[in-house]
Amino acid sequence: MSLIDTVESDQRWLRAAIELSRSCPPSQTAFSVGAVIVDSGGALVGEGYSRRDDPHDHAEEVALRQLPDAKDPRLGAATLYSSLEPCGARSSRPRSCASLILDTPIQRIVFAWREPSVFVTGEGAELLRAAGRTVVEIPDLAPLAREANRHLLAE
Ligand SMILES: [Zn+2]
Question: Which residue among the candidates 60, 61, 85, 123 is catalytic per the annotation?
Answer without folding.
Answer: 60
